[in-house]
């Protein structure tokens, strides 16, 4: 999506880079694109102009759900392996380690890791199987968990995408509730956004959420002049007329509104 030039660019690689079922992606500081492909059972890497570079993944029981770039490492959620696999961020993409380890107690085991996020040297894992957000150190040690299975406030049914803003607020998408719950860095529920589709702002089987600080200028026109737009929250729906909903975090301007 090119907001500046108001264009939508469609990218479909061929040859060795042909994708079968891409589900999530990430872009590094050089512009290289990393795609988690459920069909190929690999992470496929392209350069910034779309040329195929390489692909990598485990040989057995590997089904990548998401890819996350942190420093010189690549974190990949392995759906069938019930773990997160960590690779080196170089041309070899060597597997370094995975977590949780087999000898971990049941409290730190993982069900179906779907989406990943990072904040303050921590890795956040959306565990679809256990309906929890699990928080690990960069080395893979369990630090904390958030949420539980159920239909109550602060609980999850079909946990999908997660994202974190610069203040540590966590956005967690639930495909069953068709909403997005927002928690502060202490794990307290702040609010819920979205809901079953009934016009703009509603969601249909939402899957992914992204926090974006770079494109606010293109959406300021939709904000009350008395407020500043701090950042954007993009939420994707898998079906329906509005496949991407854009929410905004706002704050009152200092002094009288203009």
What would you say this structure looks like, in words?
The chain is an all-beta fold. The chain is built from no helices and 19 strands. The strands form five sheets. A four-stranded antiparallel beta sheet has the order 1-2-3-4, with no helix packed on it. Strand 9 and strand 10 form a beta hairpin. It starts with 21 loop residues before the first strand and ends in a 6-residue tail after the last strand.
What attributes characterize this protein structure?
mainly beta; 46% strand; 0% helix; 258 residues
Per-chain topology:
Elements: E1 22-27, E2 33-37, E3 42-46, E4 52-56, E5 64-70, E6 73-78, E7 83-88, E8 95-99, E9 113-119, E10 122-127, E11 132-137, E12 142-146, E13 159-164, E14 170-174, E15 179-183, E16 189-194, E17 206-212, E18 227-237, E19 244-252
Antiparallel strand pairs: 1-2, 2-3, 3-4, 5-6, 6-7, 7-8, 9-10, 10-11, 11-12, 13-14, 14-15, 15-16, 17-18, 18-19
